[in-house]
Every structure is written in C-alpha cells, then in structure tokens.
C-alpha cells in the first residue's frame, strides 16, 4: 500500500521530481532512488512526512469538492510545500481525475489512512499493485477454510521482500505467511477476515492494513512490537483492547467501527494520529498519556461533551464535525455560576462582573461555548472542525470560537484570515457585552428573588414574634394555634433547591439587603415589605402612575397599608385592582378601611397569610361593605347579582342598625371628617322636615359614593386605636373626677336640703310662736311700732 | 318608679351601685369628645339623645369593650344588638367557627377580646375541638351566659375546682380573673374519673356565692332548678345547662326565646326594603336614594317602637334610665 513501493515506475522515471512534489511520499523514502536498499520505514516526526502521503488524499478530496471524514491535514498545506505536481507526474493527475469521476470517495468518506492504497489501485496502470494478484498464487485457491499460503513469484518476492499486499482476495482468514519474517508491510484490505491471526511471527511488521474486513476484536497483535501503523478501519470492533504491547504505534485508525468508549490507549505515548471517526462515542475521555497526539479525528460520533482534550500537549488537529456538541452543558452550570457571582456581588464586587480566573467555573462564564472552549487552553491546537454540530448553528459560533482560540489557524477546513479574526474579536466582545448585560439582568432577577425571599423571611420572623406576643397574653391552647398560624413557613417557590447550600451562603452575604422591594411591571405595582410603602411618597411620573391599574401588596401588615391608602388613592388614581398576599388580614372589619378608596373593581386576597379568607362570610362582607364600588371580581371570580343580594341579606340589618340606632352625635363622630359635611347638610335638610327632601342632598351623598349607614363601619388600626384609647382614658379620668365632684356637691346640697326639710317645721312653728307672742298685746305692739317709725325718722 | 330602697343608701353609693355614675361619666366624656358637633345643636339635646340611647340599648354600638362590659345593662344591650345585627347569619343557616363569630363581634366592638369568644365556644363544644363549627343559636346562648355572667362564672370555676380537689370552698375568696382561669383549665382532666361534682353541694356553694357577689348572678332559684335535676355534673355541663335554660334567658331579657330567635319582623321588613333597593339599584337611582331617607327617618320610628324587649327587663332599664335622667338635669343646670 505504500505508494513509494506501489509506484516504482513513476518514481523511477523521475525520482527528483517526485521528491519535489512530495505528494507521493508517504514515508519519506529516499531509498526510492536506490531501489536495492532495504525498505526503510522511517517516520519523521518533525517533518511529519507521514502526513505527506496522507495529505494526498486530502488534496484529492479538496479537489473533488467533498468533505469526507478521513482527512489528515498537515501544516504543509498551509506551508504550500504541497501542490499538485503538474509537471512532475501527469499520471498522478489523471489518477486524480479518474477518482473524481468515479464517485468512489463518497462511498468511503471516512477512509483516510488507507487512501494511498486506493490511490495506488487507481494508478494501477503504472504501479505494481494490480499485478500483485497476478503474481501471487495461493497454494490452496479453492479451499477457503484452510489457511491459504501465498506463494509469490520469486522475482516479485525479491523485488518486494519486505511488503505483501493481499487485497480483494476474498480471504476469510489470515493466510499463513511463511518465510517472510522480515516482512514489514502487510496489506489485507477488502477481505472478509474475521480474526487477526497467523501473523504473530512477523516480528518486524511495521505497517498492518486490515481496512474493510470483518474483524470483531483486536487480537493477535501482542508480538508485533515494532508495529507503527495499524489500520483497522471499517471493521466490527466494539472495544479498544489488546494494544498493550504496541508501544511504538504511531498511527491508529479505528474509524467505521462500533466503539462506544475511548479506553486502553493511555500508554500509546508515541501515537500521533488517532482516527475514531464514525463510531458510537458520546464522550471524549481517557486521553491523558497521549503525549504525541497531533491529530484526533472524531467526526460522525454522538459526542456531547469532552474532557482531557486540553491535556494533549501536541494536539494540532481536532475534527469534531457532525457530533452533538451544543450549549447544553452550559445550562447545568449556569445557576451555580449565578450564585457564585451573586456572592461576589453581594460583597460589593458587582462592578467586576468578569469573574476572576480563579473561579473554577470561569470557563463557563465566558460564553455559551464552554463545551468547546475548554479547548482554548490547549495552545497547540491549530485546526479544528466543528461543523455539523448543534453548536455550529449558533449565530455567534464562528466569532466566539475565533475569539477564544487565537492560536487557531483553520476552522472547519477554512483558513482563518486576520480580517476574520479581527471581526471575530469585535463581534465576540459585543457578544460578551450582551452576555454581561443579560447576566446582569439575571443577577438582578436573582437579586429580586433573594430580596423577596429575605423579605419573606423577615416577615416570617415578625409573624412568629407577633404570635409569641399574643400567645403570652392568652392561654396555652390559644398560643398553639397562633404558633401554627405564625410559623406556617413561607415556602418560596423555588426550583433550585439543590443549590441551597450556595444559596444560604449567598443569603448570608445578602443580609444587608433591602427589606423591601418596589417594582412596576406592566400595569402592576408590586410592593414587598413594609418599607415599600414609603415609595408611595416618591414622585411617580404621571405616565407611570397612570398605567398602574393593579397594586399588589406582599409581606406588609394590613394596618400599615391602611395608613397609606389615601396616598395610594392620590398617586395611582387608576388603580382598580388590589391584591393582598401575606398581609395579615384577620378580621372582617379590616375591609372597612378599603372603603375610603376611590374605586376598586377587583379585589384579590390570597389565603396565604390572610386568615380572613377562610371565613365563610368574608366575601359577602366585602361585597356588603364595598357595595359602593360595584366590585366586579373577588379573588378572580365574578360577582353576581345573587352574591350582592346575599351580602345585603346577611349584613343589611347591621347597616340599618348602625345608621338608624346610633345617636346623631355618634354618627357624626364615626363618619370621617370628609363625609361629615355632606351628612350635616343632609341633617339640615331633614331638620327642615320639608316634605320634599331635597334631591341635592341625595346627590351630595352619592358623590360621597358610600351609603352613610355603611360609612359608620370604620376600621381603625391598632396603633390608632391604642392612641385613641389613651386619649379616651385621660378624658375618662377627668370625667370621673369631674362627675365625682359634681355628685359630691349635689349630694351635699341634697343633704343640706334634707336637713333643712327636717328642721323647717320646727323652725316655722318657732317663728309663728314668736310672732304670735309679739302681737299678743295689741296696744303695746302698736306703741312699739310707732316708736320704731319715729325712731327711723 | 323610684325604688323605695334608694333612700336606704347614701346618695353617691346608690348612684354608683346603679351605675348611674358610669353613664354620667360616659355622657360627659362623649360630650367632650364631640364638642364641636354637639355645640351645633345644643348640649341639652345631646344629653337627651344620650340617655335615650342608653334607655334603648343602642348606646353600646361600636363602643369600646371596657364600656360595653361596664354595666349589666350594657351587656344586655350588646347581646341584643349582636342578635339583632347577625340574626340573618343564623337564619341563613351558616355554621361558623369561634374565630368567625369573634369577627362578627368585632364588627360591633372593635376591641372585643378573643378570650371571651373562646370561652363561649368552649361552653358550646364542651371544652373540646375548638375549631368546630357552631350554629348561631348555640353560640349566642352560650355567649350570653359567658358574657353577662363572666365574673360569676369565674368564681364558679374556682369553686368547682375546689370541690373537685376536696377543699372547703367556703374559704375561697373570689378569685381574680387570671388565677381563676388557670384553675379552670386543669378542671376537665382532673374531673374525668369522678365525672363532676355533687349537685347539691355545688348548689350550696353557689348560693352563698350569689349572696356575697357584687356582680350579677343568675337568680338562685333558677340555679337550684338547674342543679336539682341531676345528681352530679361537670363544670361545662353546668354552663351548658345554664345556657339552655329558658328562665335565665328570660331573666336577662336581652334575647328572645330559642324558638323565636330567628324572628324579628320589624327588622325583616327593613331588610326587605334594603334588598329591593339593592336589586333595583342598577335600574333606578331615585328609588335607592329614597330608600336612604327611609333609613334615616326610620331612626326615629324605631326609637319609638324599640324592638323586642321583654317587660321584666324594661322595668329594670327604666329605673336606671330615670335615675340618670334626673342627674343629667341637675348637671346640666
């Protein structure tokens, strides 16, 4: 199969020209000129002369415009040391053309190492190859079962004492080769051999070609210590094995087999070419130890991921076309990376989103091409093919690859120009920026998530505390229920529980996080945590404020919300849908507070953290109390006429009693300041008792929007209530002393009065007696009177 | 109208005993609170209105708990108001939990304590399975006993506990609310083997308690009636019997008999008006606005025909009402 041998005629005709073109030289055989010298199979690593031969095939392919698999590229292509020998060997050229037309290539797309053989066969017109079959006669031509013993014509034997070609002989077993111990090259291409045998005596064998046979297991090679080229393409091998003694192996071709795993080759320190194309590999692994490997062909497998590739110091050519390499792996790592980034961000390094190289995952951060980019470290790599992989479909595929693998000279069989490289780096930078942006977005999202988690956590703590406080007031039984209430742990919906350890670290780092979050998303304003309520003081743009139609409260005490409701009314006049979640709505009366808003069309009270929703009556109460809003939906379900009537049926009397039975002064005080005016007006109208109760008064009440009888049902927050109680208490004390004084005074007066009453009859009698005694003697009394008058004068 | 024994006590004590002072204080306090509004239509009118509402029992609406429980009359008024406002809930057949009843109570009295509601629920549920649903009437009658006689019940709990442990209950001082509570929490577990105390002994203790107590107690004759029907009984059994006893309910006079509990024709009439208003709201606004006026004018009418109120009770209320009105006049001058 070695061309130098096969093409003796041509070589003979112009050895120098052959050398010049270098095309036909598979093994640099300077001996071509001196034919009597023994064949010297020398592989020059530095020159990679071996590739010269292989290159030829590649060249053919390029010419034929096809991209086969079995391609051994050499730097020589680039170095322009190789070109078609136009002048030197026309026969070669014709051979090439012949091949082009034959379509042979397509049939054996993966054939690489053996191509020279083919080549030689094509060139049969002037090579010894075809004549082999003529010159050799098998001892037992007819019997296939026995081991055939080839008998060569003595002349031939002498000529090619070190090589034997037995291709297309329909051999089913290896023939016994006798007396040819010094044989160096053996070719069994295109036979039906199922087992490698009978060659263990060929200790000097350097080149063994078993391409296109039916071999199922690598065996019988343990004695061939000097073997350097082993071609086992297109066989039925399932497992790489029994190569332990072939320490000098230089080329190993296993393409077109059924190998599912790379193994048992770590000892092949001399191996430079490994062809595993068209196998069943899904992982690249176990490549360490292949210190000389320069070319690795893995085309047409199902490879999804790879490792160890960056441990190959000499790798220059890597063919990964038509595999399954995609960005998928990236996604597995993405979350971890986010957490790590977040961690660093939490500690204040957000300005440097570019990860430090020490981070173990930095590789994956660099882009979506991590799967491939682990190759970036392998500095020797100069040539890579990735076409036919999912990854190559990515828009930025080429740019990213080029950007990250500066040492690359050829990608997908195309040379890389400086221009391309520059474009790539620019594009890649852009891409990276974009990525950073999306990364930042993701960080923000993550931050939001964590903040909400944090708020939830704080809320939970707070709830527990509240529960404890209340429980201390009540007996144990009550406290139990409260505890349950409070400790109903808020489980944040999270799909990445597995990352909890990282998360918890991150959360610790984030303990300085805000305890609240405000967010406008579409037409919804989200408020998380009580601190978020302060945002209502902010200067919202008219536009933003106008678009907000839904306001969602989470993790905020309802009492706190109540205090900002007037602000909400003013800032977001269009808000018509209120959502409450984890807001501690416990009592029906709390809904009273919502009545002060301008309008509500929808109300959503999440059962989570709002025990009131478990009451059977809550919906009716809401309908009754917020009757003036004409609520459309409560918790997502439409409000029907029946609901409204039912609500009225249940609570109508309450409103009636409230309005009809309250003393007027209380009615006034219970109605807020705002409604007082209207109501006073109404009272006046009523006071007139004019038969025509003025229409206007009703109108004015309509403006208020709320039936007065309902308006009495107010809600005062606890703080306000206690405040009020303080005030009331003070007033009460005052009243108490005041009344006591009054009562005492009254009692005193009463006592005196009673005493007087008791004494009075006696006193009266005495007075009368005195008077009677005085006037008993009329004359003397007259005198006395006259005397008094004169005295006065 | 004036009871003859009013002269047997010195004035201030008499007034205090009859809670006249409480109302007077409250009236002045209210006056102070709503100074501006009241000044518009006259202090005299304010006092008239105030004591009228006290008389009718509507004065407890939306008031603070401390005021609501301050006098027996207030308690009875609150019970009546509660019944009146939420009778419809019972009529609708809804069974509610203690918490939900509590919410309803809080609609009328924002700071109503959960504790009382829970105790009432305990009577209904015999101190068991607190989250159960209760019917409106069960809860209401239990609540009546618990709320109206809460101090009495605490003392009873202490006595019961002492009887269980074999102590002489007569040495027992009327306990403070907190200590009483603790005892009565232990009660059920300890009483189970004996299953309660002997009824006659229990009655003796209660009788002496009623004599001593300055708080309102159920009439001892009725207590005797309750206790005489059984040999032994448990604490909650006793409370349950009290709650179900018609006589006691009549004595309190706040609620109608159990059979009539869901009936209140005048209110139903009003409700019908409201309903027609609601269902017709979307069609015609004028009808609804006239409905509003009806409401308001109904204020006066309902005041005249104060709803359901048994004779017995009315007498009691009148005594208080008149007494305080006298005082009002004097303070006004």
Automatic annotation (TrEMBL), chain B:
Keywords: Cytoplasm, Cytoskeleton, Microtubule, Phosphoprotein. InterPro entries: CSTPP1. Its main location: cytoplasm. It comes from the Eukaryota. Residues 282-333 are annotated as: Disordered. Residues 291-305 have a biased composition (Polar residues). It is found in: Cytoplasm, Cytoskeleton, Microtubule organizing center, Centrosome, Centriolar satellite. GO terms for biological process: cilium disassembly; microtubule polymerization; regulation of protein complex stability. Residues 320-333 have a biased composition (Acidic residues). One of its GO terms (molecular function) is protein-macromolecule adaptor activity. CDD domains: DD_C11orf49. GO terms for cellular component: centriolar satellite; microtubule. Regulator of the tubulin polyglutamylase complex (TPGC) that controls cytoskeletal organization, nuclear shape, and cilium disassembly by balancing microtubule and actin assembly. Regulates the assembly and stability of the TPGC and thereby modulates polyglutamylation of the microtubule, which antagonizes MAP4 binding. Belongs to the CSTPP1 family. This is Centriolar satellite-associated tubulin polyglutamylase complex regulator 1. The lineage of its organism: Eukaryota, Metazoa, Chordata, Craniata, Vertebrata.
